[in-house]
Write a structure and sequence with these properties.
The complex is a heterodimer of chains A (about 350) and B (about 800). Chain A is an alpha+beta fold. Chain A has helices at about 1-20, 25-35, 40-50, 60-80, 110-125, 140, 175-180, 225-235, 290-295, 315-320, 330, 335; strands at about 85, 90-95, 130, 160-165, 165, 185-195, 210-220, 245-250, 255-265, 280-290, 305-310. In chain A, a hairpin with a 2-residue loop joins strand 8 and strand 9. Chain B is elongated, with a radius of gyration of 42 Å. With about 800 residues, chain B is of the alpha+beta class. Chain B has six domains: about 1-35 and about 155-180, Phenylalanyl-tRNA Synthetase, Chain B, domain 1, CATH 3.30.56.10; about 45-150, OB fold (Dihydrolipoamide Acetyltransferase, E2P); about 200-395, Phenylalanyl-trna Synthetase, Chain B, domain 3 (Phenylalanyl-tRNA Synthetase, Chain B, domain 3), CATH 3.50.40; about 425-475, 2-Layer Sandwich (Phenylalanyl-tRNA Synthetase, Chain B, domain 1); about 490-690, BirA Bifunctional Protein, domain 2; about 705-795, Alpha-Beta Plaits. In chain B, strand 16 (about 285-290) and strand 17 (about 295-300) form a beta hairpin. Chain B contains 21 helices and 39 strands. The interface between A and B is large, with 94 and 106 residues. The structure holds zinc ion.
């Protein structure tokens, strides 16, 4: 059957251009359109028969069908243009309302869109992008962040391990230590990256997600700079009227530590399901770098001060767009992704 | 953790403060608090007395009761079998909303109008019992609110505590923060203990064999108690904070725990062999049955509380079944101890037990509160269960715990906060939090660590205390302190946004996929080294770090095909991972691209077609070209990923930066792909390394080019790149550009051959070329192609 279909396609390819060129009226062109590519046209019919062709021959023949079809369509289009409509005043015109050719332009993933925006806001404020390994040593993931073995804060996250001393980083914070080891202050970095938590995957939780970590160490860096920097960020990243609140909290590697809340972007603070009727959304953890951490990287805490912050972006992005299942970000259904930008 | 406002009032006055007030201030100072109302709904439930109880005239099982709640009698129709005249009962008057959401209405039941309901346990949300109505003791005061009667009428707060604040895991602990926040004093429990028994040393003894794990162990004995239910004020308070009442002795230990935060344990003295306590470290593989009835293997080094013969409690975590208080207990040994946090933490984690006690001990309990806790518990037991308290307590304290001396320099406060808190205010805050100021100088303060604050040892810790109570709101915001970045991002990071934008320009959709994959995906292709497996995974479908990007992208294609999206063109900038050696791991950033199925060009003027190899190689060439400002070399490659003969390496200046090709059919089948798939991957560091920037522009040409076309018939085995190179070589310096514009097979060209047509531009920088000159070049080109590739001119 393959050979017969191929012959028929060759025949069409050989005859169709001349037949189309010979048309003397738009009606004749239309008749040929129906004959070749109409719902019952010969090319359409062959295309339907493809299903019955042995699988190993299908791609080759399918490709040939596509070629011949394109050829015929091209000729029909050219012929059609010969018979353009005249407007009342005797001027020729084309149907400008027909859609243009498909322009293939890709898109960023929604999480990238958020990461890019965050990175760019902090770049404007003088932060440089840095990076670090996801398979991290316990030293960087815990100890140098002021979490010695048996520290209760190690329970704040469930950590994956690939070997006894080797966790998958549970936060981007180890990069703080690595970067400080590499250079002397000023250090002003922003670290977008993937982190891991040993959690069961569900609509609300994924075992990996993206965080952005920031660190600024210099002389005379204070909590007031932390507030100013993060307020500026929140005002640019969230809708203009967003309010920002700093709430004392605890992280082993910062002191004082703060949780940063923004007024709920959905209800504007009046309370809704997303913000659990609190009117606030928790989006960021931050604090002044604990002197113990400086001890690990040999910075003099009497000379230098710094602040650090970290935020997960997956949840914020979910809230921002009303995504009800976090797994959408990882499944990559084109019908989901094509809605962004 | 839950606290009740009523209970809080034992330690600080909350007059004039609503639950919301308190929650807001706590939240703003570091203890996240949410008001959660009373334990059970039913403000209007009231205690009533059944005056009369007669059979319903029209229904056998119903009774018609005359009931008073203090005022005029009313009629209630009741279906419970146990209702009788003279009983004290719980009345839900018209308008009450019950725990199940039902609202009580005036209603005629079989012709008799009922003006309320007499409630069963489940109807008020107290339990599951629906056998009959609740019958209260005869002394229950008619007309009193039922919630008040049960001591369940208090507003409550739910607290989310950070792990550094074990001290706040009690009503008194929270009261200390409130004292600093609202400027009100705290009050302590008044303990009136009458030691009316014999000397405790005559009854028991304590030996600590493991002072490292248990630095302090205090014991008291109460003899001759009567075990029974707790009074409702105690039971009510425990219930409100989520603790189930058990019996008067156990409830007292829990009461003291929730009140001042120190865990206690009560043993039945007669079940302790030799009536004595020995504290020792557990040996290997010891088994022990905890209070919950579970027999467990206890990790070596756990703290065991033993009697003369055997373990009787898992120290700091849970008591043992063999020594618990029962209804027959008469003599009680009370324990108040301090355990070393890391020891408790290790055991609790290993045996998977999180108890009220373990949560406090592993974060750090109050080592001085043991005395107060045990005295108070003994006094309460004496008050509620009778008995005589033995004279004195045993205080085994082999390793004295010393509080830290903390130096706070005034200069440190503005240096960290960027704001200067008034000194008097700083002192006030510290004092209100119970942090004694031992010395004040012009430089700063010397303070003592409170025994209940394991988190306070350094000056910075006090700065935080001051800041959180003073209020983060009072610290100004400073902007503009930061400036130009100290340095640029490394090239392999800086190139990432560029690569992404080129891919998007090529029409590709970015995807982000899981780095954790199923082992069968990780084993599909060779990675850079050994695969890296998660040792504590929860689902085997995500138990290995990916070794290759292709399975991840094919999986995206699979999901989309299964949902009728016919064709994808996508890219991901992600990592692949490998183990190079023990303790040496590698992650490599890869740009990966996958094309499969329809191009999605389906409009009237489009060419409908499927993606093919040349779409992919076109994208790959452009990316390399943009990166390195030169065309890549594409050479054959028999990689695992690709159909033999359809794979290629991408080289820049002889260095491999990537691979591309048609994905093997059997691999496509694994992912149920109905169409051919094309895959390309680049090593991002490799691309970054070959990055070039334009140094100098070429001048625009001043003379026209001479254009020629050339169709060469060659054996199928001759590849175009070879022909192109031959032409360029033979064409000389004036051959400006060579383009393959057609490849033809069919009539006029014999089988086993193909015709490859080139378009050539010749140009000289300083003159217009003559046709004769170009003819000479063309002859040279044809000759060379004949010699090197067996080519002939197509007629
Ligand atoms: Zn909201």
């Amino acid at each position: 059957m393959t050979a017969e279909l191929r012959d028929e396609l060759d025949r069409i390819a050989a005859q169709a251009p001349a037949r189309i060129d010979a048309c003397a009226s738009p009606e004749e062109v239309e008749a040929l359109r129906v004959e070749y590519v109409g719902t019952k046209g010969s090319i359409t019919r062959i295309n339907k028969l493809l299903r019955e062709v042995p699988a190993d021959q299908r791609p080759g023949l399918g490709k040939r069908v596509g070629e011949v079809r394109s050829l015929v369509l091209q000729k029909l289009q050219e012929a059609g243009q010969k018979f353009q409509v005249e407007d009342g005043a005797g001027r020729q015109r084309i149907d400008i309302t027909l859609p243009g050719r498909t322009f293939l332009l890709g898109r960023r993933h929604p999480l990238t869109i958020a990461l890019d925006r965050i990175t760019s806001i902090f770049s404007d404020m003088g932060f440089t992008v840095a990076d670090g390994p996801e398979i991290e040593s316990e030293y960087y993931n815990f100890e140098a962040l002021n979490m010695p073995p048996d520290h209760p804060a190690r329970d704040m996250t469930d950590t994956y391990y690939v070997a006894p001393q080797w966790p998958l980083r549970s936060q981007t914070s180890p990069v703080q230590v690595r970067e400080m080891e590499k250079r002397r202050p000023p250090v002003r970095i922003i670290v977008p990256g993937k982190v891991y938590r040993n959690e069961d995957v569900s609509a609300r939780a994924m075992n990996q997600f993206f965080q952005v970590e920031g660190l600024y160490v210099d002389r005379n860096v204070t909590f007031a700079d932390l507030k100013g920097t993060l307020e500026t960020f929140c005002r640019r990243f969230f809708p203009p009227k967003t309010r920002v609140r700093f709430r004392p909290s605890y992280f082993p590697f910062t002191e004082p530590s703060t949780e940063v809340d923004v007024s709920c972007i959905l209800c504007n603070g009046s309370g809704c399901r997303v913000c659990k009727y609190a009117g606030w959304l928790e989006i960021l953890g931050a604090g002044m770098v604990d002197p113990n951490v400086f001890g690990f990287v040999d910075y003099d805490p009497e000379e230098y001060n710094g602040f650090a912050f970290g935020m997960g972006i997956d949840r914020t992005t979910m809230m921002r767009y009303g995504v009800d299942d976090i797994r959408h970000f990882w499944e990559n259904d084109m019908r989901f992704l094509s809605q962004f930008e | 953790m839950r606290i009740s406002l009523d209970w809080l009032n034992d330690f600080i006055s909350t007059d004039g403060l609503s639950a919301a007030n308190i929650a807001d201030r706590l939240t703003a100072s570091g203890i996240e608090a949410t008001p959660i109302g009373t334990l059970i709904a039913g403000d209007s439930l009231v205690i009533g007395e059944v005056l009369t109880c007669e059979k319903h005239p029209n229904a056998d099982r119903l009774s018609v009761c005359g009931v008073t709640t203090g005022g005029a009698p009313m009629t209630i129709v009741c279906g419970a079998p146990n209702v009788a005249a003279g009983q004290k009962v719980v009345i839900a008057p018209v308008g009450t909303e019950l725990a199940n959401g039902m609202r009580i209405k005036r209603a005629a039941i079989r012709g008799v109008t009922s003006e309320g309901m007499i409630c069963a346990e489940d109807e008020v949300g107290l339990g599951d019992d629906h056998e009959g109505i609740i019958v209260l003791p005869p002394d229950a005061p008619t007309g009193m609110s039922f919630l008040k009667y049960l001591h369940l009428d208090s507003e409550r707060l739910e607290l989310e505590l950070t792990p550094n604040r074990p001290d706040a895991m009690s009503h008194r602990g929270v009261a200390r923060d409130l004292s600093a926040l609202f400027g009100r004093p705290t009050t302590n429990p008044i303990i009136s203990l009458e030691e009316n028994g014999r000397p405790v040393e005559e009854i028991t003894s304590v030996l600590i064999d493991d002072p490292e794990g248990c630095p302090r162990y205090v014991a008291r004995v109460v003899e001759g108690v009567r075990i029974g239910p707790s009074p409702s004020w105690l039971a009510g308070r425990l219930r409100q904070v989520g603790v189930r009442p058990i019996n008067n002795v156990v409830d007292v230990t829990n009461y003291v725990l929730m009140a001042i935060g120190h865990p206690l344990h009560a043993f039945d003295l007669h079940r302790l062999a030799g009536h004595r306590i020995v504290v020792r470290a557990a040996e290997r593989d010891e088994r022990f049955t905890t209070l919950d009835g579970t027999e467990r293997t206890i990790p070596e080094g756990s703290v065991f509380i033993c009697d003369g013969e055997r373990p009787v409690a898992l120290g700091g975590i849970m008591g043992g079944l063999n020594s618990e208080i029962t209804d027959d207990t008469t003599d009680v040994l009370l324990e108040a101890a301090y355990f070393t946090p890391t020891r408790i933490r290790r055991t609790a984690k290993a045996v998977g037990l999180q108890t009220e006690a373990s949560q406090r001990f592993e974060r750090g309990a109050d080592w001085d509160a043991v005395i107060e806790a045990i005295d108070w518990a003994a006094a309460l037991i004496q008050q509620l269960a009778g008995g005589s308290v033995a004279k004195g307590r045993i205080d085994a304290y082999p390793q004295t715990l010393e509080p830290a001396t903390i130096t706070l320099r005034w200069a440190q406060i503005p240096r960290v906060l960027g704001a200067d808190v008034p000194r008097e205010e700083s002192k006030r805050i510290l004092t209100a939090l119970g942090i004694p100021v031992r010395e004040e100088t012009s430089e700063g303060l010397r303070c003592e660590q409170p025994s209940w604050r394991p988190d306070l040892t350094r000056g910075i810790d006090l700065v935080e205390e001051i800041a959180r109570i003073w209020g983060f709101d009072q610290i100004p915001s400073r902007v503009g302190g930061v400036g130009v970045p100290p340095e640029e991002a490394p090239p392999e990071l800086a190139i990432v946004p560029q690569l992404r934008s080129w891919c998007i320009g090529a029409g590709l959709q970015e995807v982000i996929t899981s780095s954790l994959v199923a082992p069968r995906y990780a084993d599909l292709f060779c990675g850079d080294g050994a695969k890296v497996e998660i040792t504590n995974f929860s689902t085997s479908d995500m138990s290995v770090l990916r070794t290759h990007m292709l399975p991840s992208l094919l999986d995206v294609a699979r999901i989309n095909y299964s949902r009728k999206v016919e064709g994808v063109a996508l890219f991901e900038l992600g990592h692949v991972y490998s183990r190079k050696a023990e303790d040496e791991y590698n992650q490599r950033r890869v740009l990966s691209i996958l094309l499969t199925g329809s191009t999605g060009q389906v409009r009237w003027a489009d060419q409908r077609r499927e993606w093919d190899f040349y779409d992919l190689s076109g994208i790959a060439e452009t990316i390399v070209q943009r990166c390195s400002l030169r065309s890549p070399e594409i050479v054959h490659y028999d990689g695992d990923e690709f159909v033999p003969g359809n794979g290629a390496r991408v080289l820049v200046a002889g260095k491999e930066v990537g691979q591309l090709g048609q994905v093997r059919n059997d691999v496509c089948e694994l992912f149920d792909l109905p169409a051919l798939a094309y895959y390309c991957q680049f090593d991002v560091i490799g691309l970054a390394a070959c990055q070039a920037t334009l140094s100098r522009v070429k001048p625009l040409p001043r003379f026209p080019a001479v254009e020629r076309d050339l169709a060469l018939v060659v054996p199928e085995s001759v590849e175009s790149r070879m022909l192109e190179n031959t032409i360029k070589e033979a064409g000389g310096a004036l051959l400006e550009r060579v383009i393959v514009f057609d490849v033809y097979r069919g009539p006029g060209v014999s089988k086993g051959e193909k015709s490859v047509a080139f378009h050539l531009d010749f140009r000289a920088a300083d003159r217009t070329l003559k046709d004769e000159e170009v003819d000479t070049f063309m002859r040279r080109i044809v000759e060379s192609a004949q010699g090197k590739a067996g080519a002939r001119l197509r007629e």
